[in-house]
Amino acid sequence: MSEAPEATTPKKAKRPLWIAVVGLLLGAVALWGSSRLVWFAEFRDGGVRGTVLYTETGSQRAVALIPLALLALAGTAGLIATGGWPRRVLGVVLAVAGLAAVWIGVAGGSFSGFADGLPVAQMLGGRGLAILGGILVTAGGLAAIKGAGRMPRLGAKYSAPGAKKKAAKDPETELWEALSDGEDPTATR
Description:
Blueprint: H1 3-36, E1 38-45, E2 51-57, H2 58-61, H3 65-81, H4 85-106, H5 120-146, H6 156-167, H7 171-180
Antiparallel strand pairs: 1-2
Helix pairs in contact: 1-3, 1-5, 3-4, 4-5
């Protein structure tokens, strides 16, 4: 019965890492999707063509959306590969990037008073996706900060057994190693 809690401990340690990774990936997808949707639309005089619908996508209106999505995507790789304080620093960078994405989604947007015929659902959906993506990236960054010490690190399973062997040396082995190094192990006794 005592083996059951030990078997679930590694899974519990991996859970915050996967929550952060999934949050960052979904945030990156939401930011990229937001950059593809219409953020601004108005009717303009087209001269001979009459009144035409002028639109700007998220990547035209807010050029930081795609770089923030790429940062969140790269942050997932960094989150998996690092551990300890570098992971905490990366978490802070990702949390700030997520807040910037939320700010981009909210700032300068009109949420009412649209003319008939404009793609209002797409305009609101684009800003909403940017806000959602920013929230997910911020949550992923905060999860990385909070669980940096508990989350597994890339390659940690290969370095852990060696560290345990060095810590648990046999006293007789130490005496033989001292003799091999040319020291007298009985001189200090």
